[in-house]
Specification:
The protein is α+β, with helices and mostly antiparallel strands. Helix content is 24%, strand content 30%. It is globular, with a radius of gyration of 21 Å. The chain binds pyridoxal-5'-phosphate.
Length: 356
Amino acid sequence: MLNIRIEPTKQKKQKPEQSKLGFGQYFTDHMFVMNYAEGKGWYDPRIIPYQPVSLDPSAMVFHYAQEMFEGLKAYKAPNGEALLFRPQKNIERMNNTCRRMCIPEIDPDDALQAIKAVVDYDSDWIPDAPGTSLYIRPFIIATDPRLGVHASKTYLFMIILSPVGSYYAEGLNPVKICIEREYVRAVKGGTGAAKVGGNYAASLLGQKKAEDKGYSQVLWLDGVHRRYIDEVGAMNVFFVIDNEIVTPALDEGNILPGVTRASCIELLKSWGYKVSERKIAVEELIEANNSGKLNEAFGTGTAAVISPIGELIDGDNVMELCGGKIGPISQKLYDTLTSIQWGKAEDPFGWSVKVR
Ligand SMILES: *Cc1c(COP(=O)(O)O)cnc(C)c1O
């Protein structure tokens, strides 16, 4: 149990209009902060006014990127309760990331307590318009003021909160995804399975290239063979080939194990679909498309939940999927997951966790 000290803000901010939230543009009145020092452990958990952080310019995070982050959401249910979606999965992944980055782990009960406490304290910021939610961003940064390349001995753990809009203004919107043949984001043995800023820094140029051509995201291939599908931007990816639903297996350690991915697999299996986690070569997709067997493709992630892929572009080869429309499996997953997340339907798996 953390003994969380609370310092209320003296001046509450004006809340943005719910129709103009976008993603990650506004932040609530407070944030959670906790320090770490070697020999002392995690200490001084506190909820304080949202404010800038003061760090020494030599703080390790600025130079060697020793940091990690998580992303989950709080949803306002019709009965007014605030709900989290499988937060224990995020906390488990947070500690897996910490181990990979030589960052000290946080007791899972303490982490959940911290998330609930700060969300509850700023619960007036959870929007209630359809499709809106409160995005929760826990993160840890290395703060030792020195330039030697070592794991830091001091850290800051923070949780900031951002009210976010509906990802799609009018229902699900199929996206155009470009297969990236030049750059890679992660390799076997690297940090692809860890949720760290460095993976995103490595992805920016490929993402920019795709955006410049009018595509919304990149489909990454594995960094060793440059042949097998990894994931899409900040989403895991699924394909419906013939009557099999396939998604890349996680065993090489270069793919981020998404909570939405795991939930989709469980839902699909409970509905009786055949789901395979395996290697998917890019040629297999192209052949399946040529023979009319690539029925559907979609990305999964906390931000958009399900992102149907309407077009897959590989150089000059433009593969249109589902006639550029939303496939039936994407739609069913989206409807089911969102109604569980927003507390509008039965929660047969016990995925929702009340904040209070
Ligand atoms: C966060 C993330 C995902 C999606 O994970 P969820 O837990 O479903 O939100 C997928 N890929 C990458 C690279 C990510 O950072």
